[in-house]
Amino acid sequence: MPRDISHIPASLPSLTGATAVMCPGVVAFAGSGPGDPDLLTLKVAKALLEADVILYDRLVSDEIMAMANGDAILEDVGKEGFGPSMAQDDICDRLVHHAKAGRKVLRLKSGDPTLFGRLDEELSACEAADIGTQILPGITAASAAVAAIGQSLTQRRRNSSVRFLTGHDMKGFADHDWAQLARPGEVAAVYMGKKSARFVQGRLLMHGADRTTPVTVVENASRADQRILATTLDRLPTDLADAAFAGPALTFLGLAPRAAAAAPKHIQMELA
Amino acid sequence: MPRDISHIPASLPSLTGATAVMCPGVVAFAGSGPGDPDLLTLKVAKALLEADVILYDRLVSDEIMAMANGDAILEDVGKEGFGPSMAQDDICDRLVHHAKAGRKVLRLKSGDPTLFGRLDEELSACEAADIGTQILPGITAASAAVAAIGQSLTQRRRNSSVRFLTGHDMKGFADHDWAQLARPGEVAAVYMGKKSARFVQGRLLMHGADRTTPVTVVENASRADQRILATTLDRLPTDLADAAFAGPALTFLGLAPRAAAAAPKHIQMELA
């Protein structure tokens, strides 16, 4: 883990006033955003400088962990999209242990902790142990990904609502979910949707979705190795297989990259 | 407009590397978050220091505007939830004018510009004038508001998807939208939903929603004057009228404040 903090000015905590973010014996659940350190909030940047101990997920980028203060205890709890590397109970135990020892505990999750962050079990564990908690929001992957393709999640006269959902759970969807998602102009951001792409395609087509509905997949949103796949519902499973994305990917149903975003700078790869 | 920037270290741009965010002749559409300056991203904080001209909405907080560099031209374009104070065409003209003059143009919107930010007309105007654009994400009000009530937007075994929608447009909803929102466990974040509260209540009850469904309204999320109203679908219009919220409010359908969040620190007002 890189620990070079020479580029962090000591005066960061005074950026927007001298108020401390972290409290001893309290656990702060914070979002690190999708990877670009510049997408950290000032609040979380301060928390990284103040924390005594930081428990972080695998998807929190090295550049962000390098912004932690040099004295902080760093614990990699390795949770991934498809299940924890460290058992959830063990993570909860670590949080309670450190808080009971009076430490300023930072629980750092990628994206925003309130969206597909599996936050509640950890909040409940703290609550059961009478440990105080706070939540520090982060930029969620959908926001960074839609910015990368130059689009809005909502647009007047196109869609007045947007859905955030996870590919893991779409097999439990009811008919009216699919009917709604299949409508023209509907926009949805699917987290962890790579494995479910063919299933989603099948259900949407069954419910009358247009085969030419635009679908965009953004891998590693906001990171240096970000890649964008612009495709259609018809071609989604095939193009996604060809792309062989290994990193975390965000799938937009109903959105194509904006023309201006289709410049070489943004689109590293686009399968026709 | 306060312009005290004495608390901003000159070294902020070097925080995560010396790369400039802003380019001359390019318009950056940026989210300022819901109000707390600490919820700015580092990227937007840098953009405020680099911009030659900043066009900002009424809901961008004074504390955030105080973080702009002292030489920046500040233009209040006054857009609000219920329609622009400056005509949309005029805003577009200003953006193009400043970009054509080779300035680093920052278009600052509250929250996240891609969510109910009316971004597309302004992007299109820049595109038509052959002006380059970029989008800098911000923390959306729903993220800050759900953090304030100690909840997650999604939770395993409760809801695997969440909807973000605007109260303005819910009158155009189809039957299956309402049927879905009316289901137990469903969670939705309604932006600008104060005026539509009675209509929403009526439709949800008509589609079988439980009268005791929790509803939480957060006014001025993340700001010093934040207030939280915890109610039920049954009592929503009455309690909302009693609360007389004047600031921007975010309504959660299907979420109550978490027990731990019901401490006096968080709940300034809770109508029974």
Could you outline the blueprint of secondary structure elements for this entry?
The structure is a homodimer of 272-residue chains.
Chain A (H helix, E strand, L loop, with lengths): L25 E6 L10 H9 L2 E4 L5 H4 L7 E4 L11 H13 L4 E5 L9 H10 L3 E5 L4 H8 L12 E6 L8 H7 L5 E5 L5 H10 L7 E6 L7 E6 L3 H8 L5 E5 L19
Parallel strand pairs in A: 1-4, 1-5, 2-3, 2-4, 6-7
Antiparallel strand pairs in A: 7-10, 8-9, 8-10
Helix pairs in contact in A: 3-4
Plain-language structure description:
Chains A, B: It comes from Tritonibacter horizontis. Chains A, B: Its EC number is 2.1.1.107. Chains A, B: One of its GO terms (biological process) is methylation. The structure is a homodimer of 272-residue chains. Chain A contains 8 helices and 10 strands. With 272 residues, chain A is α/β, with parallel strands linked by helices. Chain A has 2 domains: 12-136, Tetrapyrrole methylase, N-terminal domain (Cobalt-precorrin-4 Transmethylase, domain 1, 3-Layer(aba) Sandwich); 141-262, Methyltransferase, Cobalt-precorrin-4 Transmethylase, Domain 2 (2-Layer Sandwich), CATH 3.30.950.10. A 5-stranded parallel beta sheet of chain A has the order 3-2-4-1-5, with helices on both faces. In chain A, strands 6-7-10-8-9 form a 5-stranded mixed beta sheet, with helices on both faces. In chain A, α3 (88-100) crosses α4 (119-128). The first copy, chain A, is elongated. Chains A and B meet through α1, α4, β5, α5 and β6 of A and α1, α4, β5, α5 and β6 of B.
